Amino acid sequence: MENSGIFQPVDRPATHLKKQHLQPQAEFCPATSVVRRARLPVLRRLLYPGTMGKTLDIWGGVAAREMVRTSAGPIPVIVADRGADPSGTVVLIHGRNGAPGQAHMSAIAQAYLQAGWRVAAPEMPRSSANPGSGPPEEVTLAGHTEAARHALDWARGCWPGKPLALAGHSMGGFAVAMIAGETTALHHVLAVSPVLSGQRLIEARRALGPQALEEVEREAPLYLAELECADAAPLLAVAAAPFAVATGAEDGLVTRAHARAYFDAARDARFFCALPGLHHCPAGPACDLALAAALAALGL
């Protein structure tokens, strides 16, 4: 059941999950709105084996910045929770030129923290928003997905026996779909403005005008070359984890139809919402409500 101005879980069989229906707020904030920092209490400092921990102010409190060493090189991961025994851990993957502290990523992180989950958000390689992460023009879908796998493997090793989930925005949504199709060990997947296929993304950029495609050709030529054949649908079709999808109804990059196609491709799709007035990086009160409803539909 697709929403039209309201959001709600999709009516599909889910005997072990409780469905929740919420009405949206009338107020919508732009994607660039500042996340209010007083909403959460101070988070405790966390240090984990094999890392070099530092703390930073993010997601309404204090979190740890861990340097996770992998065969592909070090990947910084921001880690936070609200208590001594979180219910599970979500590995949160940002998109191209994204960062864990951006407003839309903070909205996702805070939704999980409020639900009692730990958040582990890698600062993905080759992002212009992550200083020292490598040349942004060398970013690729394959590299982004591989870095996400490393972060997931690290989280699995840190907290064995606890539920583990993936969440991703934009290109991060593509990465989590690819990984989810390869494993049966995920509690769920949350995808926000997610990329399903490169062809759909190319078509959207063409619709925005020639400068939109020229921009990505100039900024990320290797990534653009991958888009010609990139398609997450085959792996979404076999992914065992339940999926929830949220998007801005006015998104011109990952259009509402594109996000809905991602949802429809998932084997176990539980929740879809398109938020009026919001674009590719949704944030604000209505987005907070939608994310809470999505997590409830996924059993949190």
Q: What is the mean pLDDT?
A: 84
Tell the overall outline: globular
Span between termini: 21 Å
Structural class of the secondary structure composition? Answer: alpha/beta
Our count of helices gives: 9
Low-confidence stretches: 1-52
Q: Strand-residue fraction?
A: 15-25%
Biggest sheet overview: 10 strands, mixed
Radius of gyration: 18 Å
Describe this structure in words.
- By secondary structure, the protein is of the alpha/beta class.
- It has helices spanning 103-114, 141-158, 171-180, 198-208, 210-219, 221-227, 233-236, 256-265, 285-297, and strands at 8-9, 54-58, 61-70, 73-80, 89-93, 118-122, 164-169, 189-192, 243-248, 269-275.
- A ten-stranded mixed beta sheet has the order 1-10-9-8-7-5-6-4-3-2, with helices on both faces.
- Strand 5 (89-93), helix 1 (103-114) and strand 6 form a beta-alpha-beta unit.
- The radius of gyration is 18 Å and the shape is globular.
- The relative contact order is 0.18.
- The model is unreliable at 1-52 (pLDDT under 50).
